[in-house]
C-alpha cells in the first residue's frame, strides 16, 4: 500500500467531497477480500450490506474489455461520480454518456470500496450501476438500498431506473 500513499499526494486531490463526487478511494480487489465478505463489512445506518445476485454469484461478473484494472492487490480510483446525470437512463445510454465525458464505469470491487469508505455515498434516490463488471448475459450489477441495507444486486441492461445512475471515474492508478 505504501506506493499508493505516495501516488495519492501526486494526484493533488481535493480532500473535500461534494454531493455525488469523491476525489479518490482505495480499492482492495475481490480476490484479496471476497465480494461477500466485503459487502458484509459495509455498514450504512448500522445495517450491514449484503449480496443479492441470485441466480448468479459475484464470480459471474468480470471487468469489461475496455476497463484496465491495475495489477496488484489494491489500487486508487480517482475522481469518482455517483452518476446523478445518468439517472433513469439504460446502462447502454449511460455508458455512452460517461464515455463522451472521458470517464469509465466502475466495477463491483470499486463500488464496494466506495461504500466501505463512504457508506453515505449510497443515496436513496441516487444509487448506482457498476457496468464495468459484466457477465455473458444482460445483467448489470448495481448497488442500492433494500430494506434499509446496502445491497449488491443486478438489473437488466435495457431497463432504466429513476433511482439508478452510472457511477464512473476518470482514472485507476496502480502501485
Order of helices and strands: HEHEEEEEHEHEEEEEEE
Distance between the termini: 8 Å
Number of domains: 1
Relative strand content: 25-35%
Structural class: alpha+beta
Oligomer: single chain
Strand arrangement within the widest β-sheet reads 4-11-10-8-12
Low-pLDDT residue spans: none
Count of separate DSSP helical elements: 4
Quick structural summary:
The protein has helices spanning 2-11, 35-41, 91-100, 108-117; strands at residues 21-28, 43-44, 47-48, 50-51, 62-63, 74-81, 104-105, 127-129, 133-134, 139-146, 149-156, 164-166, 168-169, 171-174. With 175 residues, it is of the alpha+beta class. A hairpin with a 2-residue loop joins β2 (43-44) and β3.
Could you characterize the architecture of this molecule?
The structure is a single chain. Strand 10 (139-146) and strand 11 form a beta hairpin. This protein is globular. With 175 residues, it is α+β, with helices and mostly antiparallel strands. The relative contact order is 0.25. The chain contains four helices and 14 strands. It has helices spanning 2-11, 35-41, 91-100, 108-117, and strands spanning 21-28, 43-44, 47-48, 50-51, 62-63, 74-81, 104-105, 127-129, 133-134, 139-146, 149-156, 164-166, 168-169, 171-174. The strands form five sheets. It has a five-stranded mixed beta sheet. The mean pLDDT is 92. It has one domain (32-69, 82-168).
Amino acid at each position: 500500500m505504501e506506493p499508493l500513499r505516495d501516488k495519492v499526494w501526486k494526484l493533488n486531490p481535493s480532500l473535500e467531497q461534494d454531493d455525488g463526487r469523491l476525489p479518490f478511494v482505495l480499492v482492495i480487489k475481490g480476490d484479496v477480500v471476497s465480494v461477500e465478505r466485503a459487502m458484509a463489512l459495509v455498514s450504512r445506518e448500522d445495517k450491514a450490506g449484503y449480496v443479492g445476485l441470485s441466480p448468479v454469484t459475484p464470480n459471474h461478473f468480470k471487468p469489461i474489455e475496455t476497463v484496465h484494472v491495475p495489477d496488484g492487490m489494491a489500487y486508487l480510483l480517482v475522481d469518482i461520480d455517483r452518476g446523478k446525470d445518468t439517472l433513469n437512463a439504460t446502462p447502454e445510454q449511460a455508458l455512452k454518456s460517461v464515455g463522451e465525458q472521458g470517464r469509465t464505469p466502475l466495477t463491483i470491487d470499486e463500488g464496494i470500496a466506495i461504500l466501505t469508505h463512504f457508506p453515505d455515498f449510497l443515496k436513496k434516490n441516487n444509487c448506482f450501476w457498476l457496468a464495468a463488471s459484466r457477465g455473458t448475459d444482460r445483467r448489470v450489477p448495481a448497488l442500492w438500498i433494500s430494506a434499509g441495507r446496502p445491497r449488491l444486486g443486478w438489473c437488466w441492461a435495457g431497463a432504466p431506473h429513476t433511482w439508478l445512475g452510472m457511477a464512473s471515474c476518470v482514472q485507476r492508478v496502480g502501485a
